[in-house]
Amino acid sequence: WRQSSYAGDAIITAVGLHEGLWMSCAAQSTGQVQCRLHDSLLSLEVHIQTCRALMVISLLLGFFGIIVSVVGMKCTKVGEEDPVTKSRIAVAGGVLFVLSGLCTLAAVSLYATQVTYEFFRERTIPINARYEFGSALFVGWGAASLSLLGGSLLCCSCPAKERRGQQYRRQPQPSTARDYV
């Protein structure tokens, strides 16, 4: 989620440090990577604990959103056969996806805010020993955007009020033979 900064005059490229929600890694210039899990949950900073919780909640909401959305699809035979009920189930899946995207967006943005704050706050630490955004933050922003977009599209699948409960029937066409006489 964050990586060591390569800014400044004295660039040290022998070791790259990467930190995430679950572990810290050091990558050598030879290609060797050494990782270690964070030692204790209670010794972690508050923003990391909050981001962990939000990401786990986001994953659970996304998982349940997938299940509910599959049940609400018109092409599946699971659940009700009524199209109105099916569309309401699909909307519920869309709401779960939107909530999942919001949790992801909140977690990634909170972590990015903390990285930015620490980067500019520490005046005594050399600039190449600070951390900047890692690639996981950008992946998280992209995933949150796609989840919000997909959930919004599912929420729009509910039929209009005047069409709810009505079946489409073919109306008999009036005879137009009298018009030509």
Automatic annotation (TrEMBL):
Pfam families per UniProt: PMP22_Claudin (PF00822)
Annotated organism of origin: Notiomystis cincta
A GO MF label: structural molecule activity
Family membership noted in the UniProt record: Belongs to the claudin family.
Subcellular location: Cell junction, Tight junction; Cell membrane
Coiled coil segments of this chain: none
GO cellular component terms attached to this protein's record: bicellular tight junction; plasma membrane
Gene3D superfamilies (UniProt xref): 1.20.140.150
Source superkingdom: Eukaryota
Keyword terms, alphabetized: Cell junction, Cell membrane, Membrane, Tight junction, Transmembrane, Transmembrane helix
Transmembrane feature ranges: 46-68, 89-113, 133-160
Protein name: Claudin
InterPro entries cross-referenced by the UniProt entry: Claudin (IPR006187), Claudin_CS (IPR017974), PMP22/EMP/MP20/Claudin (IPR004031)
Keyword Calcium: no
Function of the protein: Claudins function as major constituents of the tight junction complexes that regulate the permeability of epithelia.
Membrane topology: Multi-pass membrane protein
